[in-house]
Amino acid sequence: LTRNVTRALSVLMVDFSCALKLAMPLAVMSAMREAGREHITVKGGRFLEATAKADTIIFDKTGTLTHACPQVAQIIPFNGKNEAEMLRLAACLEEHFPHSMANAVVEAARRRGLRHEAKDVFSALRRLGVKKTVMLTGDSPRTAAAIAAQLGVDDFRAGVLPADKAEYVTALRREGHTVLM
Questions:
Q1: The whole model's pTM is what?
Q2: Disulfide: which of 68, 135, 144, 164 matches 158 by Cβ 3.0-4.6 Å?
């Protein structure tokens, strides 16, 4: 307040004599800001620490790994075009129309890229020390198996109710795993 640099430094030296007092909150805030940029919400420092110790990650399928909406079941190319090119053209034509079928075509084009991204994410998680990825879903075993195979998930549970999901997490923790969901 007095614009005296010496006084300001003396206050800082007395108050922040331990570098950790200043460094730890700054590190946590920086990590939370970086997570926010990736659309990840972190409640606080203890959750960041828990993430570093995790050896198992569980994903709820619907809304996280998939969306409940119409989807493209098959692409039939013509005139010598390949499937990827036909899908790209259809998505370019449909992306400006606000109806569910147009959205399904655009989503299918994006999903083609996202499947590869999801596989890359699971590979990165393994490199970071995560030993197991699990998908929990209320869907049928057949649907769950197909999606798990596409994404490269280690394990899945189908027909699971919300209360059962919590119990599954609790069971893994009892076995000694550090679990994120």
A1: 0.50
A2: 144
